Amino acid sequence: MSRYRGPRLKKIKRLGALPGLTRKVAKFPSDRQKRKNNKKFESWKKPEYRNRLEEKQKLRFHYGLGERQLLKYIRIAGKTKGSTGQVLLQLLEMRLDNIIFRLGMASTIPGARQLVNHRHILVNGCLVDIPSYRCKPQDIITTKDKQKTRALIQNSLASSSQKKLPEHLTLHSSQYKGVVKQIIARRRVGLKIEELRVVEHYSRQT
Q: Domain-by-domain residue ranges, the chain?
């Protein structure tokens, strides 16, 4: 499946909050919340397959991944020492487009991806135009010295000023510069997700 380009609020209504997909807020409760509040569903147990599928979809739409791309990350995480689910989230959180989003330089991950694709982002002084670039501790994220680019980033920084910056990142807003201090801890991941269900979903397919 390719990257999703359809109505974003539709996915929020279905899956719940997806801060990386859009900053819009649904006016009505999500389907998941409706089921939780409806007494008819109190005794109804959702099929386990559906639970796993929904968690996988949340991960895909939040980080803006295609099906093959997510499967690739699952395989890398499975070969890496440590909990597969935790490693998977760390791999996704350390993507360049996500780092830019978490720094507040873009309001959404698709917006951050566009900045990278349009060659506005530098990592350690070198131009990087690959959104999936895996950032490492001590990497320095900066922007090209272009008025239009910095105006866009300044607007995003202003709108995200109320959000708390994750502990693994440092932002120097006046210099349009961010620094990756360390690998993100599981508790600081920006999405509420049951990652083990995602791992189970793919383990039952292979």
A: 8-91+191-203, 95-182
